[in-house]
Amino acid sequence: MKTNKFFTFLVFLVIIITGASCKNDEINPNDKNSITLSFDNKVGDKSLVLGTGAYTNSSGEDFTVTTLNYFISNVSFKKEDGTVVKFPNNYFLVKQSDAGSLEAELKDVPAGNYKEVSFMVGVDSTRSTSDISQRVGVLDPASYGDDGMYWAWNSGYIFFKFEGTSSVVPTNATGKRPFQLHVGGFGGMTTKTANNLRTVTLPLANAATVRGNIAPEVHLFVDISKVFNGTTQIKLAQTNLVHGITAAIPIADNYKSMFSVDHVHNDAQ
What we know:
Keywords: Signal. Pfam families: MbnP (PF20243). This is Copper-binding protein MbnP-like domain-containing protein. By secondary structure, the protein is mainly beta. It is built from 3 helices and 14 strands. The chain has helices spanning 2-25, 125-128, 249-255, and strands at 32-43, 46-47, 55-56, 62-79, 84-95, 103-110, 112-121, 150-151, 156-165, 178-184, 198-210, 217-223, 241-242, 259-265. It is globular and about 65 Å long.
């Protein structure tokens, strides 16, 4: 008798769990929630630590990192049925020095199963040339303080700022050996037409399942060592001060490959 009662309890438990699972799988077209992109900056398989971390690039050159900032914009998600949901008016400035900036939240994402994410590294030409009144938040040139993510002399944003020190870099007037790799240039300018905007598209091995009670988090690894060994090998001994748009093209081509999706959290709220 006890065995039968225990078996009945197990069946009842399975029904409850299965029912809950099916409920979570149901897509209500009226539901919306958020998806958060979580950026985990690394150097190879090591976590990025500003100022104190000692790293080696693919050319065997040692380096430390003092600044890593980059813009993320024009995010879109593709559903399993091929539908694409775009967020053209969301701009994020990711700064290794600011833990809060490593989480980029996209709000009001329609319920669905999303298998792909795309985003641009940089600030598109439309917003770069728009009236200053439309460039607020992280796009406000006056809001950066020491970040300096805007070239006043070039009327454009710095998409990617990577700075540090290396023993292979010549000593400056203060006795330090700094490198500065700054990337900007949205194309269409009168004197400098190079376009260093880069779009990254990444598959999601396990879909981001947006539901009324599920707000997925997509965890991305960002391997900045790819800056040195992507399409073009870059050596700090030769390339350590880049502020020009044309000179930055190989860097932009390289860092396009530094993003990868590690995993997706689909935890019910």
